[in-house]
């Protein structure tokens, strides 16, 4: 019995020994193959990874290129917009400067016109002839003549000789209907014997503005304007000399 068991055990041990070697060999071969396969797989995997990395880099480069192009385009657009705004601003500044020059010129012209209007003189009437001069004696007045007489048809328009303010417009005894105009330098001019007034006290007149019409009121022998010039509204001076020297007029 023991011998039989021993024999059986020996048989089993043989079988195990016999089977172990081939199995180990196959396992080694399989491991080698697996190792080869793993190497190949490793190489393939590495190649794929490298390819993916290359594709990723190429894609990144493409994205960067596209982004760079877009940035350049935006920068160009921004530069063009800035240039257009600068041109518009420059044009606006030029236009403003031109307007300022034009306004300054207009203001200067207006000031010149005003100065000229302040100093401008005009003859009081037209269609006249002088019938009496300053200082002339005669029985037509109580003393030497104090003004200059311009004979003209009744109703002839009478204008102020230069710019001034009306300080009197009323009946003045022997002078008849009289208007007095005070000028910038204080000189007062008198317009006498008028048939009617065209102004009131306080009116501001420019040279040539109507003050009344030729008449024969007061101590008068016919239609005429008796014109007097009184510096500071004092004593009369020779109207002929004043008209020539002060106003540049030659009656």
Task: Give an overview in words.
- With 251 residues, the chain is α+β, with helices and mostly antiparallel strands.
- The protein folds into two domains: 1-119; 129-245, Glucose Permease (Domain IIA) (Distorted Sandwich), CATH 2.70.70.10.
- It is 50% helix and 19% strand.
- The protein has two helices and ten strands.
- It has helices spanning 2-119, 239-245; strands at 129-132, 148-151, 157-159, 164-171, 177-182, 188-194, 196-197, 204-205, 210-213, 224-230.
- The strands form two sheets. It has a seven-stranded antiparallel sheet.
- It is rod-shaped, with a radius of gyration of 62 Å.
- Residues 1-19 have low confidence and may be disordered.
List the helices and strands and how they pair.
Elements (H helix, E strand, L loop, with lengths): L1 H118 L9 E4 L15 E4 L5 E3 L4 E8 L5 E6 L5 E7 L1 E2 L6 E2 L4 E4 L10 E7 L8 H7 L6
Antiparallel strand pairs: 1-2, 2-10, 3-9, 4-5, 4-8, 5-6, 6-10, 7-9
Strand order of the largest sheet: 1-2-10-6-5-4-8
Structural class: alpha+beta
Instruction: Please tally the helical runs, counting DSSP H or I stretches of 4 or more residues.
Output: 2
Envelope shape: rod-shaped
State the separation between the terminal residues, measured CA to CA: 183 Å
Secondary-structure element string: HEEEEEEEEEEH
Regarding quaternary structure, how should these chains be classified?
single chain
Signal peptide: 1-20
InterPro entries: Cell_wall_metabolism_enzyme (IPR050570), Dup_hybrid_motif (IPR011055), M23ase_b-sheet_dom (IPR016047)
Keywords: Hydrolase, Signal
Protein name: M23 family metallopeptidase
């Amino acid at each position: 019995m023991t011998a039989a068991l021993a024999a059986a055990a020996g048989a089993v041990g043989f079988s195990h020994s016999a089977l172990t070697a081939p199995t180990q060999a196959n396992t080694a071969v399989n491991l080698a193959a697996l190792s080869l396969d793993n190497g190949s797989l490793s190489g393939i995997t590495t190649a794929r990874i490298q390819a993916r990395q290359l594709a990723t880099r190429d894609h990144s480069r493409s994205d960067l290129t596209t982004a760079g192009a877009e940035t350049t385009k935006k920068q160009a657009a921004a530069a063009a917009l800035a240039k257009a705004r600068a041109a518009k601003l420059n044009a606006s500044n030029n236009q403003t400067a031109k307007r300022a020059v034009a306004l300054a010129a207009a203001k200067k012209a207006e000031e010149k016109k005003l100065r000229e209007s302040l100093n401008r003189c005009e003859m009081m009437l037209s269609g006249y002839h002088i019938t009496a001069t300053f200082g002339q004696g005669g029985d037509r007045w109580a003393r030497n003549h104090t003004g200059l007489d311009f004979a003209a048809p009744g109703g002839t328009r009478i204008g102020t000789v230069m710019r001034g303010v009306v300080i009197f417009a009323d009946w003045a005894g022997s002078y008849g209907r009289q208007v007095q105009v005070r000028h910038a330098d204080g000189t007062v001019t008198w317009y006498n014997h008028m048939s009617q007034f065209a102004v009131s006290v306080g009116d501001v007149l420019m040279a040539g503005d109507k003050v009344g019409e030729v008449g024969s009121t007061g101590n008068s022998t016919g239609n005429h304007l008796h014109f007097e010039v009184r510096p500071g509204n004092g004593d009369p001076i020779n109207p002929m000399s004043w008209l020539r020297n002060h106003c540049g007029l030659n009656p």
